[in-house]
C-alpha cells in the first residue's frame, strides 16, 4: 500500500449515503483516514458502523489473496464522523477548525431537486436547491482551505444534468452548472490546491427517492436503453472516478463526466 496514501486524511461532506458513502468506502480501502459528515444523526451512525466493519475486514489479511489491489493488505484507514449541515457556514467552519490537517475534501452534499417543468418550479424550490448544492459546495471549500494541505485537493460532485438539455431539469441544470463552473476558476486561483469535479449521469442512489417507484423505474429503464453502457450508474462507478481525481496529483481544473456515454447518445 502506498505509504503517502496511508498518511493522508480525506473528509467527505455528505458521506453517509449514495455516492458519498461509496466514496468513503473506496478511500478507506485505499488506506486513507476517512471523516464523513451528514445532517442526519441516525444515518451518520449507520454509515460509521458500516465503515467500521469494512475497516475491520480490511485489517485482516486474506492469505488466499496475493494481488496488490488497494486495501487487500496492510492497514486500512481510520474512520470518524460528525453531524454537520453543509449549509450552515458557522458550523462548517467550526467542524473544519477542529480537525487539524486535512489532505483531501470531497463534497457530495445535495439539496432539493428543483425538478419539473420550468413554469411550475417555485421560487422556494430554486432557492433551496441553490442553497443545498451551490452554497453547500462553496461554503465547504472556503472553510476547508483554512486547514487543507497545500498539496491537497477538493473534489465537487455536480451532475450531468448541467449540460444534458433535458426538459424538466432547468433548475437542476442551473445549480449543477454553477458548481461545475467554479472548478477551473478555483484550480487557477487557489493553486497549488487541486480543484476537480465529477459529473455523474443517472446513478441509483437514495437521491431518487423523491420519485414514486413506477416513475423511477421508467426513468432508469429509458436512461439505460439510451446509453452506450446499457445501464444506469452505481455509486461505486462514481467513487472510482473520485478516487482518480483525489489520487492523481497532475489533474486539476477537470470536470469528469461519468454518465455511461449518455452525452454521446444525445449528441451533446
Secondary structure elements and pairings:
Elements: H1 3-6, E1 9-13, H2 18-29, E2 33-38, H3 41-58, E3 79-83, H4 89-97, E4 102-107, H5 123-145, E5 148-157, H6 170-189, E6 194-200, H7 213-226, H8 235-247, E7 255-258, H9 262-265
Parallel strand pairs: 1-2, 1-4, 2-3, 4-5, 5-6, 6-7
Helix pairs in contact: 2-3, 2-8, 4-5, 5-6
Strand content: 15-25%
> Total helix count?
9
The largest beta-sheet arranges its strands as: 3-2-1-4-5-6-7
Q: Tell me the series of helices and strands, N- to C-terminal.
A: HEHEHEHEHEHEHHEH
Could you explain the architecture of this structure?
There is one protein chain. The chain is built from nine helices and seven strands. It has helices spanning 3-6, 18-29, 41-58, 89-97, 123-145, 170-189, 213-226, 235-247, 262-265; strands at residues 9-13, 33-38, 79-83, 102-107, 148-157, 194-200, 255-258. It has a seven-stranded parallel beta sheet, with helices on both faces. Helix 3 (41-58) links the parallel strand 2 and strand 3. Residues 66-74 have low confidence and may be disordered.
